Amino acid sequence: MTPDVCALSNERSLQRAPASLSLSKSVRLALAKDQDPGAAVERAGGVIDPLGYLDIRPESSVDEAMSRTRSSSGTVAMGRYEASGVEAEFESGSRRRVLRNHLGIRRARDMEVAESRALRVAQLAFIERFGPEHRFTARNLCDMHKVWLGSIYEWAGRYRTVDIGKGGFQFAHAGRIPDLMTELERGALHRHTPCIAGDDEQVALALAETHAELMLIHPFRDGNGRLGRLLATLMALQAGLPVLDFRPMYGKGADAYIAGIHAALSGNYRLMQAVFAMVIAAARRRDRPRV
Ligand SMILES: Nc1ncnc2c1ncn2[C@@H]1O[C@H](COP(=O)(O)OP(=O)(O)O)[C@@H](O)[C@H]1O
Ligand SMILES: [Mg+2]
For residues 152 and 154, what is the distance between their CA atoms, to the nearest angstrom? Predict the structure, then answer.
């Protein structure tokens, strides 16, 4: 445990958000009025990856994963990739832009839409499933990934078996993922969930550590960023905060967000905490009643 995290656990008020406050006001109102809570989540800025923001960095994540693997593993890399099964194959006719999928989708844009729609549905299911007392496990994260992407990809919910990186940064070696996820469960997930109400700085640090550690592991072939933001949203709701607004992580904010992931490698969560403080502040602004 880093000193920061020790301090956090000691300082935090042990008061948990009452169940009735666990959902943001707008989502609760929509549920009460039997309106479409999905639309309410969206209005509240809670869309984890609104269309057009699907990747923090516009890049062909698939191609980059391929080239990284190739360069990191030398001459037989392509063979390794092929040997790793369905997760490394592309949909035929997609010009290596779309991973092989159950829906026969070949255009990247169509896949963005399909993944986004599925995420919206999954998010609502999880808001209802995981209440303010829930302690998240590695298994929960696999289930969430499976519920979200299971109708699209064969490998949904299963840890990746290929090494991948982004922007020159290599995520955890695939062989270490099961152990690292167990460590995450015993570490950040155990300490920070259920996420306890506190001042925004404290909650931001809890979200930051959990998110950054999950991003460093990058357990799944794709969808890690959105899954991590979904978990952060659920944790924020546990702490009585509104549905999060992740726009500070996009556009001009992307550099700080990515730097926050890199800093977490050496146990420094302060940069990521600052990013989550902005995410929480943006959520509060959006949740404020309009007069
Ligand atoms: N250069 C980078 N270094 C470290 N992490 C990165 C970098 N670029 C992107 N990321 C992280 O990886 C996530 C994207 O991973 P990915 O599995 O493709 O998720 P998604 O499909 O949901 O975007 C980003 O949201 C961010 O958290
Ligand atoms: Mg991706």
Answer: 7
